Each structure stands twice: as C-alpha cells, then as structure tokens.
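Students often ask why inverse folding is considered easier than folding. One informal answer: many sequences map to the same fold, so there is more than one right answer. In these notes we will look at a single instance of the problem. The structure comes first.
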C-alpha cells in the first residue's frame, strides 16, 4: 500500500489505525463469558437466571471500543518514543507514516475513551457501581500498558488480566451476578491463549525493542526461552480445561485441543522462521488460532449444556 493512496487524517487512515483485525481477539473473552452464562441460564438450568441480551451487546461494544482505543494509544506513544522507526518489521503505523498527525491522534484517543465510558456506563444497572471502577481500571491500564508496563516486561501480565480474567469474569458476572471456579479457570486459559499473540509480536520486534530500551519478556529472557513460553501457553491453556473434564463436560474439555494442533504448528513455524518480516505471517496465524480457540470453547460449552442438562 503506497502512502500517497492514504489521505492524511482521512477515513482510510483512521481505519488502518483502528486495526480492525485485532477486534476478533477482543471479542473472544466476551464470547467465552457469554457462552458460560448462557449455559448456566434458565434455558438450561431450572431456577437459573434469564440470559440478558442488552449487557451482552454492551460488553461486546465496550471490548471493541477499548481495543481501538488501545491501538490508538499504542500508535501515538510508540511514535513519540521513537519505537516505530524505519527499522520496524511489523505493519506500518499511522502516526509514524504521517497518515494521522499526532495532535489529531490525541483527539481520537480522547474520543474513544469517552465513547468507551458511554458504552460501559449502562452496565452499572446490571452489575452495580463497581462497574465504574472496572471501566476506570480498563482505561487507566490501557494507557499504562504502552507507556510503562510494556517497557518493563509486564505487558504479558496485563494481557492475562485484561484479555482474560477481567472480560471473561465480568461478562459472566453481569449475567449471573456470581462467579464460579469454572469461569475463573476459563478466564486464565483465555488470557494465556491471547498472550501467545503478544509473545510472537515481541519475538519479532526483539532487536528493535532492545535498541529502544523496551525490556519486554522476550528481551529479558531471550529467544529460546521465549519460544518455549509460547509453546507452553497453549498447553497450559488447554489443560486448565481439566476442571470441566472432572465435571463431565467433555465437549468443553476436548474441543479446544483442536486449537492445540494449530498452536503446535504455529510454534514450529515460528522457530523455523526465527526472525524478520516473515514472522508477520505467524502473527496472523496466532490471531486465527485465538479465534479458533474461542469458537471451539464456546461450542463445547453450548454442546455440554444441550446434552448434559
């Protein structure tokens, strides 16, 4: 794509900055929480709570807006810090390419932050005043991830919390007004699966990050250890499903192992490529794998609910 095809601050520039391909990953944790809530709703459990469609839609919209907000913040901050320079191996970024000017990007960040607050505020009616605190934490750590945590090697922890525990558990809680150990284990598994994408991203950018002083987990631990971390993320995520196996929810346990086959193939390809722009293909494969995991997990939950209750 040639730069002259993109008008500065135009619609196409904003679309590229929003990174629409990342929205699928943002949807997976919410869909996992919704599938478990639907399984535990009055449709399948006598005396259970009815499934609520309004908070379900709001949770999805909040996840999408927050993902776009995070992408804008990442684009702007990395540009200001000089991380997105001419040696970047990943896809081109809006501010670095001049597609969106920094001042206009700041307005975009402010707009998506306000929009996220507006979308999330009605959830107070379903989850109580605590939902305001959850929303504030999401916004605050959205900034802290790019400005501080990713430079300290703590980005993976934030992914586990804010792409696993928080969205899965909060989505379920808004429906059922309670949490279970099953939901918590599922949220951990989700966070580990999503973190595989960050590991590959930082694996690809390790030389650039090292020069920029960005001490990601990959920079701190090295290439070989990072490859093994990627491998074990998928293994641990799938085996956390043992909590479902011991309850007789066999579909929920076994179906995600199909994802593990794809994860293992991606791991082998990642090791084979090793470095360079070709790892962008591995990132795309990881995004596909995350979506596959979400589909398999949700399908398993719904099949178990249909056949076992």
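Output (designed amino acids):
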């Amino acid at each position: 794509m040639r730069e002259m095809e993109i008008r500065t601050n135009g619609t196409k520039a904003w679309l590229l900055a929003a990174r629409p391909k990342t929205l699928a990953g943002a949807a997976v944790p919410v869909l996992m929480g919704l599938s478990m809530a639907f399984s535990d709703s009055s449709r399948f459990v006598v005396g259970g709570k009815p499934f609520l469609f309004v908070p379900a839609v709001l949770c999805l919209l909040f996840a999408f807006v927050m993902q776009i907000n995070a992408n804008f913040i990442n684009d702007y901050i990395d540009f200001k810090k000089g991380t997105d320079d001419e040696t970047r191996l990943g896809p081109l970024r809006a501010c670095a390419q001049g597609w969106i000017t920094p001042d206009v990007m700041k307005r975009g960040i402010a707009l998506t932050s306000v929009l996220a607050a507006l979308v999330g505020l009605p959830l107070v009616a379903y989850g109580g005043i605590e939902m305001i605190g959850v929303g504030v934490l999401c916004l605050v750590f959205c900034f802290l991830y790019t400005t501080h945590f990713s430079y300290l090697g703590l980005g993976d922890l934030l992914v586990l919390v804010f792409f696993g525990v928080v969205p899965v558990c909060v989505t379920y809680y808004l429906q059922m007004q309670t949490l279970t150990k099953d939901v918590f284990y599922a949220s951990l598994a989700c966070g580990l699966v999503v973190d595989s994408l960050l590991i590959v991203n930082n694996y690809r950018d390790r030389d650039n990050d090292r020069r920029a002083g960005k001490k990601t987990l990959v920079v701190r631990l090295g290439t070989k250890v990072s490859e093994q971390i990627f491998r074990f993320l998928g293994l641990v995520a799938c085996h956390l499903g043992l909590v479902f196996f011991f309850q007789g929810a066999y579909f929920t346990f076994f179906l995600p192992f199909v994802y593990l086959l794809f994860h293992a193939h991606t791991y082998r390809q990642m090791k084979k490529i090793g470095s360079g722009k070709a790892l962008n293909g591995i990132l795309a494969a990881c995004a596909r794998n995350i979506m596959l995991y979400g589909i398999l997990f949700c399908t398993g939950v719904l099949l178990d609910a249909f056949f076992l209750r």
